[in-house]
Amino acid sequence: MSKRDTYRSVRDEREYGLYWYSGLWHILRPILVGLTVLILVVGIGMTVWNKLYGSFLAPVDPDDPTEYSFEISSGDSLNKVATNLEKAGLIRSKSLFKYYCDFAGMGQKIQVGSYTMTKGMQMTEIADLLTTGDGNPLVRNITLIPGETIEDFAARLVKNGVLENADKLLAICKDGKAFQDYYYVKDVLVTGQPEKRKYVLEGYLAPNTYEVYVSATEEEIVKKLLSQTETVFTEENQARAEELGLNMDQVLTLASLIEKEAKASDFTKVSAVFHNRLKENMKLESDVTVHYITGVRKMSLSDSDLNTDSPYNTYRVTGLPLGPICNPSADAIRAALYPDESMVNEKYLFFCAKEPESGELYFSKTLDQHRRAVEIYAPYWKKYDEERGIQ
């Protein structure tokens, strides 16, 4: 090979090498640029993340193992819970806590309860804890038995640990003003001589079993029962009451007497007697109205019992007593509105108890028939009282 050929070969190889490196650089350059940009973005992202995490997401104090109590009450909104957590120093940002709970679908799942947490907990851990509950029951059942008075009901709530004492419940039921948004309570406050009533709300708490929050206040409990009364006293009942010339308070008052006087099977019969006596402008002479005043369920009433000075004593007042003497059932309300027609037409005017243990009643049309029945059954009443130490 000549020198010229050798030189040309070397030159060609050099040019080829330069071409190869040039092509490789064209390939690698965008990759290297991309990697550099990615490293910069990741670096910036990590810096921003660390800043955000430290400012908003990180535990408030990872080194503090102290346990703190936190309460969520019935009716607390997500906003209030978040605000209280921030005030307690358990999270860094109430806004971020709210956004997280909403985004994760936890906003409506936070539960009432007493919780224990530390400042070393992650925000997400706190949110999870508040949605799983504290392990304690959130609700309980309470029952108002048909025929119970407000005092009976309050005493049982205390006995069952629902209330510490009965004072507040009795006070708000006696006054009634906190519940005047209910039209029927307002009617009593305006026209029902509330200052003379033993309890303004007597008769207006619907007997039933209710589920209430364990943290429910006396007002919340009463409102639950008052709302059910509106359901029980239907439009049909309203129309029937108007047909009879009675208002809601009078119907509930009559129903309360029926509830206390008889077993359910005799409700409409007792109602017929009371309706007939009202038509005749006779005193109702119902023993249970005296029981309501004295607080003693006595079968044989004494002269002093009968002469008790009270607007509830139907041995002294003509017509219905001032107001209900217990909280009547839906069946008793219906009986007050729909008395036994045959007994109404036959003008039954009297009834009395037979043997007290049986709960049966004896019905009479005339005073003579009634007196004979009383002579037969009075010894049973006296014995019943004596066995129970009732004088």
TrEMBL record:
This is Endolytic transglycosylase MltG. It comes from Aristaeella hokkaidonensis.
